[in-house]
C-alpha cells in the first residue's frame, strides 16, 4: 500500500484540504480556510503545515481567538452549514478564549473545527508555560474546558490516532442531526511527530448531507393532528434554512392556508412580504404572530429548538398541541410534541401529500391576513423617520427603519445581543433566507463584527451590514482591522446609548431601580468613530436619522470598511408585539413597583405549559 511520510500536523492539514462538498451542482472545498493565531503549542507544528499547504487551504490571521471563531461560525451559518472553517490557537489563554465561541456554535448547532494546541503528550518538560495543572487528574489541560461545549471531543496523543479521529470529526460536522463544534486537542509534541500515512487517507472525499425521510407512523400521526386542527400555526426555525426547505415551506403554507411565524434563526425563511408570513414569534415577536399563537390549537414547529424566547417561556401557546418536524430527535420530543423526525424539506413534502386537499378554516386564514396587514402598518409607523425639527434622540427602531429602507435587496444584516435583536425580530424586513443573520441562540455580545466578517467571506458579493450597540462594540471590535486587511468590506452601524440599554430597561420593567447599566453623565464620551478609524476603517458620526439616511448610500458604495456612529435613546424600546418572558423577580417585594411586578409574574406563571 503506498504511503506518505508526514508529520501529524501535515497530515491534518492535507486531510482537511482534501474534503469536498456539493452545492448547486458545484463541487467546492468543504473547508473555506483555517483561522489561526500562533503561539507556542501550534506555531512550529500546525503553523508550519499551514504554511506549506496555504494554496490548498487558506489561512487567515485574526486579532482575537474568540473573534476568529465567531467568524468561522458565521461563515458556516451563511453557507447554511454546507461549508465550514477550522480554528487553531496556542495552548493556554489562546485556547480558552475560543471556549465561548464553541458554546455559540454548540447552542446554534453550527459546525466549526477547533484545533487548540495542547501540552506535551510525553510530559517530559512539564509543567510548560501556560499549562493548567490539576492536583487530582494529571490528564487535564485547559482544553478540557471544551468538553461540555463540543459535540465531539478528542485528544490526539499519537499521530496515527488521526486515522480514526479525523473521519469521526467530519461525520459530526456534516451530520444534520449531530452538527455542531468538534474539538481535537492537539499536543504540541505530537504535531511534530512523523508517521507513514496511507496515501488513500488523503484522497478527496465528497460529503453530502444526510436527508432523512419521515417515519410512516409518525407521518400518519402528524397528518391526523393537523386535519383535526381548526387554528393551526407554523413556527419556522433555523432548520428550514439548513435543509433548504424555503420553497417547501412556501408551498405548504399556500396550499394548506396555514400562517407562518418565524424564530430568530428562521427569520427570512419566507420573504417579509409573503402573504403567509406573520413575522417573528415569542418574546420579541410581532403582535400578529403572537395573537394567533395565543389562540392556536396546533403548532407545527419546523426545525426549531423551541427555546423560551420562542415559546414565551412555555406560556404563549401552552394549550396548543405541538407537532415537531425536526431532523434531531432530541428537539422533536420537546413540549410533549408529536414528533416527526425528518429533514424539513422532505418532511413538509410528505406531510403535504398526506394532507391532500386539506386547508385550514377560512375564518382562521382571514384573521391571519387582517392581523398581518395591521402589523405591517405598525412597522411602518414605528420605523418611520422622525418629522423634521423633532430634536429627540432617535430610537433603535428608527435607525433600523433607515438602514432597512436603504439596504440593497441582497444585503445581509448581522447582529447578536442586547436590545437590537428584539427590534430586528419584530421590525426588520428580510428578503431571503441569508439576508437575516442573527446569533440569538447564545446571544453572545461581541459576535457582531467578527460574525459580519465571516458572513462577508462566505458571501463576498453581498453587502454585509453589522448592527452593534456600544456595549458589544467595546467588548470585541478588533476584527474591524482584520476586515480592512483582508479587503472584506463591512458597513458597521454603532448605536450608542451609553451603556447596556436593553438590560437597563429590563431592570426597570421588573421593578428594579436603575443601577450599573448605563454610564453616568460624568463619564467621558467615547469617540467610536476615532477608534474605528484607528483600526483602519473609514468612520464618522451621524447626527440623527436624516444624516444617517444620506450617509448610508455612500457607505454601501465604498470599498473599505465603513463605520457610522449614531446616538440612540436608551429608554425607548418597541412596546408593540412581544410576549411574556420568565425572568424571576423578588418573592419579598418591598416597594409598590415590586409588588405590582410580583403579582403579574405569579399570574403569568399559571399559564406555563408543564413538563415536556
Automatic annotation (TrEMBL):
Keyword list, A-Z: Hydrolase, Thiamine pyrophosphate
Domain of life: Bacteria
Record GO biological process: inositol catabolic process; isoleucine biosynthetic process; L-valine biosynthetic process
Transmembrane portions of the chain: none
MF-aspect GO terms: 3D-(3,5/4)-trihydroxycyclohexane-1,2-dione hydrolase activity; acetolactate synthase activity; flavin adenine dinucleotide binding; magnesium ion binding; thiamine pyrophosphate binding
Protein name: 3D-(3,5/4)-trihydroxycyclohexane-1,2-dione acylhydrolase (Decyclizing)
EC numbers on record: 3.7.1.22
Domain Thiamine pyrophosphate enzyme central: 220-351
InterPro entries attached to this UniProt entry: Myo_inos_IolD, Thiamin_PyroP_enz_cen_dom, Thiamin_PyroP_enz_TPP-bd_dom, TPP-bd_CS, TPP_enz, TPP_enzyme_TPP-bd
Gene that specifies this protein: iolD
